[in-house]
Amino acid sequence: MSRPCIALIADPTSTEGCREYLAEAVELLTGAPPVRIDARHFGARGTGRGVLEGGRLRLHVPQEETDVLPDVVVLYEIQPHHRHELAAFQCLLEAPEVVSLGTGPAAWRTATQKDLTVERFARDGVAQMETVVLSRPERREAAAAFDRLGGDVWARPVVGTGGNDTFHITTGAQLDDATHFYARRGSDWLLSRDAGNVTADGMRHQFRVFVLDGRVVHAREHLQPEPDTPCNTCRGATPVHMTPQELPPRLAELAVAATESVGLPFAGVDLAVENGGVVFEVNVQPAFVDGELQTVAVPYIQAHLDALALLRGDRQVLPHQARPALDRGGQLSA
């Protein structure tokens, strides 16, 4: 059987570097690198074109002299503020014979816009901290929300990334600063009651759980020495890797429920174990850190290959025994 052709479409201006993990995963599983394409070509002002051809999607990008008919399309590492620009292209990826996971614009929008996520969780009964959505509020409105939430809250933009523009607020002065900050940026924002997710030694902590096709494939706990700073690794939190079996069952259940609620087959879910378990957010395209090539990137690409096999009616695209063996730490075995 010929090796599948995989197109990896990502934004090369992103600093997260997920595309490098995914490219390596493609080569590990197929023996060949992916065809890399700049996602910006398929945005509203781009010159790239996707044309359905016999049920498959031909990708034509004149600026890159690319004309390819891939078996699989992997769309990843698109920054939240730019995702809406790819909505029309995403609709093409939803064609029945195009193999591409988690690329529907509706699900992306629900998970990216946190006000919509809050609404969806409330509808589906997914546990979350009490949250108020604010849009250019007057001082009195913001203060009323702050008081209602107990005077210990986190403020975050409706659309954001990496914990940027997120603040822990415990005083009226801090609330005024946040109100002015979001007003200057013309951003809607949320106030959420603090989850009290602080360890006995004073570290803020939360969990990032990777869900793929309704099951947990990997998790990590984030330990943040600065309790007033978001628990993102890019903001100084230390990741501690966990196997799915090491994750508290309640968090695994919540992560799967949250992913299903927003309509994604793959996501990185941020949660706290306090308050009986609560979900903070669902990340459409979670960033990878060291040690997650085999534990996250490889399973994600393998899911695409399995979908291709199902479409073709093959038992499998590549023999499982030919794939790299992994040790318990997620590294390649010798």
Helix and strand layout, with pairings?
Layout (H helix, E strand, L loop, with lengths): L5 E5 L7 H13 L4 E4 L10 E5 L2 E6 L4 E3 L3 E4 L11 H7 L11 H8 L1 H11 L6 E4 L4 H10 L4 E5 L9 E3 L2 H14 L3 E5 L10 E9 L2 E10 L13 E5 L6 H14 L3 E7 L5 E6 L9 H20 L22
Parallel strand pairs: 1-2, 1-6
Antiparallel strand pairs: 3-4, 4-5, 7-10, 8-9, 8-10, 11-12, 11-14, 12-13, 14-15
Helix pairs in contact: 1-8, 3-4, 5-6
Properties at a glance:
single chain; 334 residues; alpha+beta; Rossmann fold; Dna Ligase, domain 1; D-amino Acid Aminotransferase, Chain A, domain 1; 3 domains; five-stranded antiparallel sheet; four-stranded antiparallel sheet; 8 helices; globular; disordered C terminus
Structural features, described:
α3 crosses α4. Helix content is 29%, strand content 24%. It folds into three domains: 6-100 and 290-322, Rossmann fold (3-Layer(aba) Sandwich); 130-193, 2-Layer Sandwich (Dna Ligase, domain 1); 198-283, ATP-grasp fold, B domain (D-amino Acid Aminotransferase, Chain A, domain 1), CATH 3.30.470. It has 334 residues and is of the alpha+beta class. It has eight helices and 15 strands. The model is unreliable at 319-334 (pLDDT under 50). The protein has helices at residues 18-30, 87-93, 105-112, 114-124, 139-148, 172-185, 249-262, 293-312, and strands at 6-10, 35-38, 49-53, 56-61, 66-68, 72-75, 131-134, 153-157, 167-169, 189-193, 204-212, 215-224, 238-242, 266-272, 278-283. The chain is globular and about 60 Å long. The strands form four sheets. The chain has a five-stranded antiparallel beta sheet, sandwiched between helices. A four-stranded antiparallel beta sheet has the order 7-10-8-9, with helices on both faces. A three-stranded parallel beta sheet has the order 2-1-6, with helices on one face.
